[in-house]
């Protein structure tokens, strides 16, 4: 998992090197997410990288029954991960990334719940790794890593250290 997280760090480093304009003009999270996804895609050439991808084959990604998280659809159950690294046809779900702007004052619990659900091995669409990155104007202000449906403190520390070493 370290190799995958190192690729996320490399993507973030390139993203910040190229996209200062977006932060200078206070563009929205969806714009930032798209531009970050371009850099993520360069790091994972054997996978597809998508934004807001809510499918596994013909099935829609849904939160488990009784979920407390609201979503963007009319049924309130579909999941729209910000960025996913996967192989669509297999399916092989490697990495789900939730992106936040540092000035977004909504509680992080929505994204945390989504990442716990997306990485839960008991759910049919489990991703191997989930990551949350909070984007400040000049670097990542916080990050978390989820594995097997829970926050992984060790990998979260690893990612935070790698981001620090990269100047992010």
What does the model show?
With 168 residues, the protein is α+β, with helices and mostly antiparallel strands. The protein has helices at residues 2-18, 20-24, 29-43, 109-118, 153-165; strands at residues 48-51, 55-56, 59-60, 83-87, 92-101, 129-135, 140-147, 150-151. The protein has a six-stranded mixed β-sheet, sandwiched between helices. It starts with a helix and ends with a helix. 36% of the residues lie in helices and 24% in strands.
Q: Which runs of at least 5 residues are low in confidence (pLDDT < 50)?
A: 65-76
Q: If you compute it from the alpha carbons, what radius of gyration comes out, rounded to the nearest whole angstrom? A: 15 Å
Number of strands: 8
> Could you give the order of strands across the largest sheet?
1-4-5-6-7-8
Compute the average pLDDT: 88
Work out the strand percent.
15-25%
Shape: globular
- The total count of helices amounts to 5
| Termini Cα gap | 20 Å
Helix share bin: 25-40%
Structural class category: alpha+beta
- Helices and strands, in order, run as HHHEEEEEHEEEH
* Major sheet summary line: 6 strands, mixed
